[in-house]
Amino acid sequence: MSDRLAWLADRQEILDCLTRFCRGMDRFDRDLFLSAFHPHAEIAAGPFVGSPADCWDWAVPMHEAAQPMTQHLLLNHSVEIVGDEAHSETYYQFIARNHPFTADGGETVMQAGGRYIDRLERGADGWRIALRINLIEWNCLQPSLPLPFGEIADAALNGIAARDRSDPGYARPLVNRRPHQRP
């Protein structure tokens, strides 16, 4: 039983590592993003191949210029752990709201999906990605629709999505500032 519990703890720490990558990229939190990788790691993602720090320097300006919102979603996750090395395959979906690029000024939403194929190593600071291969398997572009709660006058009282530490996801303690109401 203790071997099984140790495996489950390792698996969860590996999934937490992958989640740090996603949250770090979506919130533009460089330290959180880099904490998912060993300093010697290599990433091959789309046209980019290089180090995690170089990937950050390449990706963030691109997202800032083109996309006011991104979401990296983790889906099916499998992992093989042997000692201090692990190999994982994690399906992902990427969604981005694009700045208006159409003639009528309308926004678009880009979606892409694929798999992160990762080799992870456990070090003194826990599990970190040593090699990431990003297999992009599909993508599409569609028109953006208005947010369904855009008309709610007090919706922003609990904060608005931001790509920095002002985002409500960083609030401690988390509190609700909206009065109880039943539409």
Automatic annotation (TrEMBL):
- What's the short name of a Pfam family annotated to this entry? SnoaL_4
According to the entry, every stretch annotated as the SnoaL-like domain falls at 8-132
Q: Which InterPro entries match?
A: NTF2-like_dom_sf, SnoaL-like
The protein's name in its UniProt record: Nuclear transport factor 2 family protein
